Amino acid sequence: MKARTCWEAVCTVDDLVADSGIAVWTDDGPVAVFYLPHRLPALFAISHTDPFSGSNVLARGITGDINGEPVVASPLYKQHFNLRSGQCLEDESVQVKVYPVLLDGNRIRLEVQVAQAASVAA
Amino acid sequence: MSKQTLIVIGNGMVGHHFLEQFSQSPAAETYRVIVFGEEKQLAYDRVHLSEYFTGSTHADLAMGTADWYADQGIDLRLNEPVTAIDRNSRVLTTPKGEYTYDQLVLATGSYPFVPPIKGNDQDGCFVYRTLDDLDAIQASAQSAKTGVVVGGGLLGLEAANALKSLGLQAHVVEFAPRLMPVQLDDQGGALLRQKIEDLGVQVHTEKATTAIVPGSDARLRMNFADDSHLETDLIVFSAGIRPQDTLARACGLEVGERGGIVVNNQCTTSDPNIHAIGECALWNNRIFGLVAPGYTMARTLSAALNKDTGAAFTGADMSTKLKLLGVDVGSIGDAHGQTPGARNIRFHDEQAGHYRRMVVSQDGKTLLGAILVGDNGPYDTLLQYALNGIELPANPEALILPESEGGAPALGADALPDTASICSCHNVTKGDISGAIDAGCTDLGGVKAETRASTGCGGCAALLKKVVDSELEKRGVEVCTDLCEHFPYTRQELFHLVKVNGIRTFRGLLKQYGKGQGCDICKPTVGSILATCWNEHILATDHVPLQDTNDTFMANMQKNGTYSIVPRIPGGEITPEKLIVLGEVAREYDLYTKITGGQRVDLFGATLSELPEIWEKLIAAGFETGHAYGKSLRTVKSCVGSTWCRYGVQDSVGMAITLENRYKGLRAPHKVKMAVSGCTRECAEAQSKDFGVIATEKGWNLYVCGNGGMRPRHADLFATDLSDEELIRTIDRVVMFYVRTADRLQRTSVWMENLEGGLEYLKQVVLEDSLGIGEELEQHMADLVDTYQCEWRTAVEDSEKRKRFREFVNAPEQKDPVQRWTSERGQRRPELEAVSS
Ligand SMILES: Cc1cc2nc3c(=O)[nH]c(=O)nc-3n(C[C@H](O)[C@H](O)[C@H](O)COP(=O)(O)OP(=O)(O)OC[C@H]3O[C@@H](n4cnc5c(N)ncnc54)[C@H](O)[C@@H]3O)c2cc1C
Ligand code: SF4
Ligand code: FES
Questions:
Q1: Residue ranges per structural domain of chain A
Q2: φ and ψ at residue A46, rounded to 5 degrees
Q3: Cis peptide leading into A41, omega within 30 of 0?
Q4: Considering only the top CATH level, what class is B4-111+243-305?
Q5: CATH superfamily membership of A5-113
Q6: Protein residue with least CA distance to atom 15, ligand 1
Q7: pLDDT tens per residue, range B563-579
Q8: Atom of ligand 3 nearest to the CA of B464
Q9: Whole-angstrom Cα distance, residue B333 to residue B294?
Q10: Chain-centroid distance, C-alpha B539
Q11: Which atom, in ligand 2's list, is nearest to the CA of B646?
Q12: Measuring CA to CA, which residue among B740, B732, B739, B724 is closest to residue B774?
């Protein structure tokens, strides 16, 4: 059975910071949303959780591009993650979750799976 | 097998170098080693003896430490001269006892020759060889106005400079018709004389002193053979050295006609169990009065004692390059053209004060010798031609002509053979350097650490850099200095571009000089450059995305995503009231609290959204940000100083607070630490900092470019007895020069080591203003001081900026679920959890 998804509104354009990231809380846990105004598309969303430390910090990394691909560098141990695929550039076996993102008027929406929402540990 | 005994007589430069070599060698296992030193101090750097007058201490000049000797198991007996050697029973005598040896090494150096002039032993007459000599000269100089050096050679001129630096009117009296008769010719000597007289030292040549008698205006009067005389308060004899061969003579070893212990190519004397190295040894009827040949002898002997049959001392180059009283003087090989058929090429620019002479072979193909006065620019190139017998170009004069008159550029490192000696102090050849690079060294600092090249007199620094660069390039390790794929420039070049073109944003710079979108390397680098150039708030919209998370949120991120907070506590001085506020805030937010090494308090475990609240409270109590998150000034550590400490000679806390308030907030290529000690006991450990200040009776001594951490480095003495204003001006200049020219993430130590010319060059730029940028640097620093703002104050007062501190922008109440806590020793700490990956 296909997991159920929905387009959850997470924030507005005013919350975004150009060339940088912010963190939002979704039904699927913490997600980092990046706004790179000099690219098309300009919005990217990946898991906020740094797979190497287990901490929720990726939105606070420095963004940029490497060989033309948009990336963020983890603020803790500095690995780079491709914002389009979630692939870690330093370790082939590591990937973070990527979320489809769209601009709906003034709102930013992410496509998240609803079914897993309750599994966040207390 | 019981160990044999090896005894070394003399703990000077060469004796010490021998022990360094020998104790690392396999043979060290089989010997018990005893060293006797006549001087009471451990071996020190005699070459830099004069620096003792400008603030260096014995500890600064020392070549090793007592601990090192102990670690090697060497029995070091200082202040215990050997008085006799009995070769039959192999027993030595000292005032304290008798000792048996199996192998004996004489490293007794030499003693200053004092001409047999009547009255040469009265009060006020000195020699210039040991620390004790210098102590005596200094004591006598306190009540003196004038001083005379007898002898116009290398050491005499150095001694004259020392007298001048002690505040005396200095004279040089030379028997020969010119200065430095051994190294220079008449023209060179005359030019040197003129330059030295311009500096206020009076030179008297062709003067033979006949007697020294009590003076009428001064303490002493020197009478000369031509019936003239000179009155002076003190006299320093520097009329040459004589090998210290007294012991050897007395026990019947073969000595030279004019002194010196005769040795063969293995540095062994006429007794197979006795060896001699350094200035006391006579090889091939020659004495070597320089340290490098002594070191070579030491290495040869160490190898020979390890049964290396190939080890041989085969003579040494006596070329010298120095700065005497600030005047460049160089002398290479057969400077006087004594080789049959030798021809001379001379260039003399009276206007600029440059004299250059080349001595070339009859066929004009090889360089035999050279003399330089006024500018040692061509020295390295000429020396390499002479040492390696490289064939001269068809127009050899081009080597000494200024480039504007058809002079040739310096010899490329490529043209040197592998055997070319690059560093004579540590016997490093070009081949050794390429070997080190093949073994994995990738930069100048690495090669220096590996080969020790350029860590002796430092004279080879420029040449070494050239060779390293060219060798790296040859290996296709393109010496790529690009910052990253977005900017084909170094940090220094970018700094220049930003400053000169008035660029104020990252985008602006990227558009004009870069490509792509930037990355986590170039963004913080440019952010730091922009901050230094324009000092705008780091949370200004354009700058936010440039910063590391620590800079963005002005706190240090810890491994669970929370932050630590370090308020500034200038000089480590804090009132009880403020201390209580720190405690209360920490209690309220349950922050783990720890005292830092930099005399402040670190509060751990604040979440992103708590940061502005906490800072509101701290600011209300008068705290400012401590910049612990930035590549900028951290703390100025201090001891309690003259206010409380019975030894203190200056107010170290006051100075530390002044410095901390002046340099706080300055953005630099890396973090910068400082410290101020109230006296030479150095309780603030200033010599392990980027900038260390130590109080003296007369002011402050400044040390620069030290650091602790992974690769600790003692700071170098930079300037002495500075007034408060001079100290601040000097630090201003060094700091700004560092900020402008260092590479990304380069600490001051590495920066300085990589400057072509190193410490000396830095001194010229800062103390002598050789680049003419001193005022500009000071002005830039003054501007930064004027525009300082506490970033946290600005941030908490601005609601837009505060928005950045929301942990989850859409869920203010949501706690970060991975931040879990436990407690330990009465405080909260993160729960350690195995991270799944
Ligand atoms: C002011 C000055 C500037 C110099 N500048 C330079 C320079 O720029 N470049 C350069 O290459 N060289 C320079 N030199 C020369 C250099 O210092 C010497 O070449 C070097 O020190 C020689 O080392 P050594 O070990 O042979 O002798 P020393 O360093 O003199 O050591 C010999 C030691 O043996 C001790 N000793 C002697 N007899 C006994 C005994 N019976 N028992 C126990 N101990 C004994 C002495 O007390 C002394 O400590 C300079 C020297 C001076 C004084
Ligand atoms: S460095 Fe000197 S003044 Fe400062 S505490 Fe130590 S002894 Fe006292
Ligand atoms: S020649 Fe003295 S350090 Fe290299």
A1: 5-113
A2: -135, 170
A3: yes
A4: alpha beta
A5: Rieske [2Fe-2S] iron-sulphur domain (2.102.10.10)
A6: B290
A7: 999 999 999 999 999 99
A8: 4
A9: 18
A10: 39
A11: 8
A12: B732
